[in-house]
Amino acid sequence: MTPAARHAAAIEVIDAIRAGARAEAALKEWGRSHRFAGSKDRRAIRDIVFDVLRCWWSTAAAGGGEDGRARVLGLLRLTDVPVERVFSGEGHAPLPLTDAEQAVPESPSTGPAAFDLPESVLSMLEARFGADLPALADVMRHRAPVDLRVNLLRATPESARAALAEDGIEVEPGPLSATALRVTAGTRGIERSRAYADGLVELQDAASQAVADFAEAQPGEVVLDYCAGGGGKALALAARTNAQVIAHDIAPRRMKDLPERARRAGAQVRLAEPGTLGDLQVPLVFADAPCSGSGSWRRDPEGKIRFDAGRLAELNAAQDDVLRNAARHVAPDGRLVYATCSILPDENEGRVNAFLSEVAGWHCSRSLSLSPLDGADGFFAAWLEKRDSA
Ligand SMILES: C[S@@+](CC[C@H](N)C(=O)[O-])C[C@H]1O[C@@H](n2cnc3c(N)ncnc32)[C@H](O)[C@@H]1O
Predict the structure, then answer these.
(1) Which protein residue's CA is at the shortest distance from atom 9 of ligand 1?
(2) 239 close to 152: Cβ distance less than 8 angstroms
(3) Pfam families under this entry (predicted)?
(4) What is the ipTM of this complex?
(5) What pLDDT digit, counting tens, does each position of 140-199 carry?
(6) Which residues make up the CATH 3.30.70.1170 domain(s) of the chain?
(7) CATH architecture of the region 147-203
(8) Which fold has domain 206-386?
(9) FRET label pair with 326: which of 150, 252, 285, 288, CA 20 to 30 Å apart?
């Protein structure tokens, strides 16, 4: 396919997303009905679609419309690609621009199009980031880096780096955590590499690793990962000091791959079905609550284009519920680490304050707030302890 034909395909996929399809499903469906497209074409189309999703509002403003055609036109304008190279009408290229489309709109200096962030979070983020908001918004318009976590149960950063190099994967020390490696070349080969198959490394963003570090699981300590999901944090918690992790999730099917991942990593993780925790109490309960994912909207830009105030209210209620229930499993003198991959204060400090005002006998001894400006995903974590009653 020519580059212009790939842009025409991206226009179709974006229109399907606007009509309600999930991005991955829309891309898959396009691939199914265009079997002639090779893997390079599919990757290129995906990249264009995701670039538009990350810049959802500014591409619409620069292209003068809401549909896929306007947004792809806007993307070309914002990235200084000559539009007539794509909008030529030749072969499978999009049709040439109309007279109306030739006029380049002014770029807005306020609102979602100025920041590529949903209206419902703008004032909250302005209050939280102040003069840094434009820089934050700019970082969030770009692709996220790819990080690996060195599994300290199987490797050191040096031995992992050497093993990755054998498969052509180049890394450098990552930010925020001693176990983080940032991939600089060979990303596509990671899951086929020996280092990955042998459990020396896991794919995990550096900020996610920093949050697991923050919990300071002690050697051999029993940790309840209350919202384990796919188990990324459970494995990081287990690997850091060989802690014994009990993985729990309200939707246990999300943990289905965790036993195999734990086996590969040599990590002590066992699953607990919902409703089976009873009166279990452990020294560390880790609650990685469901959230907007706003700290990782670079990886999942669809999350931001569909986000609204109603969704935030639902999430806040779910977060309050998680905090309340997870706290019941903290042993005397133990701690509850509440975490989200969100940069929205309502999901972070807001939930911690709501918990502290509702449940007596707790205090927050420290917290960690990371945003994409710190070099990886945005994350929040708070260390909650039962207040000494003496
Ligand atoms: C942010 S994800 C967890 C990600 C996971 N910790 C990781 O590192 O891969 C949040 C998880 O919380 C779970 N969840 C939502 N409400 C819950 C509840 N009330 N109790 C336990 N788990 C819950 C969801 O099913 C989801 O898997």
Answers:
(1) 232
(2) yes
(3) Methyltr_RsmB-F (PF01189), RsmF-B_ferredox (PF22458)
(4) 0.99
(5) 999 999 999 999 999 999 999 999 999 999 999 999 999 999 999 999 999 999 999 999
(6) 147-203
(7) 2-Layer Sandwich (3.30)
(8) Rossmann fold (3.40.50)
(9) 150
